[in-house]
Design brief:
It is built from eleven helices and eight strands. By secondary structure, the protein is α/β, with parallel strands linked by helices. The structure holds 3-methyl-2-oxobutanoic acid. 3-methyl-2-oxobutanoic acid (KIV) binds at residues 19, 38, 40-42, 80, 133, 176, 199, 209, 211.
């Protein structure tokens, strides 16, 4: 929960987060005591096969948040607010965030721009914990034009440092730093008094998050530098599927071991 999250930060113990979109993955993540589960809008790529996260809807996020909550009712759950659901009026933003909390999230994540700060501050004031997401912000892919490293110019570095400080000042409980340099993430982490959670941001952040499908190797031909692949899931699962096909075709499945004898009562 958020309290443990804060305690780990204060004790300088790395915080570990992973994404989940369904109950079975959420349960496995809960079983290994990961600190928090993100119901990320990355599900638009990994689960739905879209090329961007821009198409994510609040309704779909509610559906996946409920599934994750069912699989891991005791885990700390953060749900992504979809594109343009927090760039609306503060009242509408509150309503949208509350919808995710009522679906089972303990907190929401927003890809914050400086113009969103007052609205995000309102969420925090009204008691909805917010995780900010800065650096590479995939929801703005049409504006940025590619998934490049962020903060590569002096002015962009300064902007990111100022944004992180403003976010810490309004009370976000953590800041995701996506795809910024090792040096910049170290600087930002030293400037703020809340945890930074890195993805493609090097080892100096207060914690780390990866998209679970990436670390399990479930997405073929996708292995960016920042992902450490712990399993060749795509190939292993395909082997299992092919083995099932072969067993059925050759009469090796089902045998009587996987079937029921007649139990008719006279
Ligand atoms: O949607 C997502 O999974 C994310 C992580 C990459 C941080 O935002």
């Amino acid at each position: 929960m958020i309290k443990e999250f804060k305690e780990k930060y204060l004790k300088k113990v790395p915080i570990v987060m992973l994404t989940a979109y369904d109950a079975s993955m959420a349960q496995m993540i809960n079983d290994v005591a990961i600190d928090g589960i993100l119901v990320g809008d990355s599900l638009r790529h990994t689960f739905f096969g879209d090329s961007t996260t821009v198409t994510m809807t609040l309704q779909d996020m509610v559906y996946h948040t409920k599934a994750v909550k069912n699989g891991a009712p005791k885990s700390f759950i953060v749900s992504d607010m979809p594109f343009m659901t927090y760039n609306v009026s503060p009242e509408k933003t509150l309503e949208n965030a509350a919808t995710l909390v009522q679906a089972g999230a303990h907190a929401v994540k927003c890809e914050v721009r400086p113009t969103n700060i007052p609205t995000i501050a309102r969420l925090v004031q009204e008691g909805i914990p917010v995780m900010a997401h800065i650096g590479l912000q995939p929801q703005y892919i049409h504006e940025i034009g590619g998934y490049h490293l962020k903060g590569t110019s002096k002015s962009e570095k300064n902007e990111l440092c100022e944004l992180a400080k403003s976010l810490a000042n309004i009370g976000v409980f953590a800041i995701v730093l996506e795809k910024v340099s090792i040096e910049l993430s170290k600087t930002i982490t030293s400037l703020v008094d809340c945890p930074t959670i890195g993805i493609g941001a090097g080892p100096s952040c207060s914690g780390q998050i990866l998209v679970t499908n990436d670390l399990l190797g479930l997405t073929p031909n996708f292995s960016p530098k920042f992902v450490k692949q712990y399993l060749n899931g795509h190939s292993l699962i395909k082997d299992a599927l092919a083995a099932f096909k072969n067993d059925v075709e050759t009469g090796q499945f089902p045998t009587n071991d996987h079937a029921y004898a007649d139990e008719t009562v006279q």
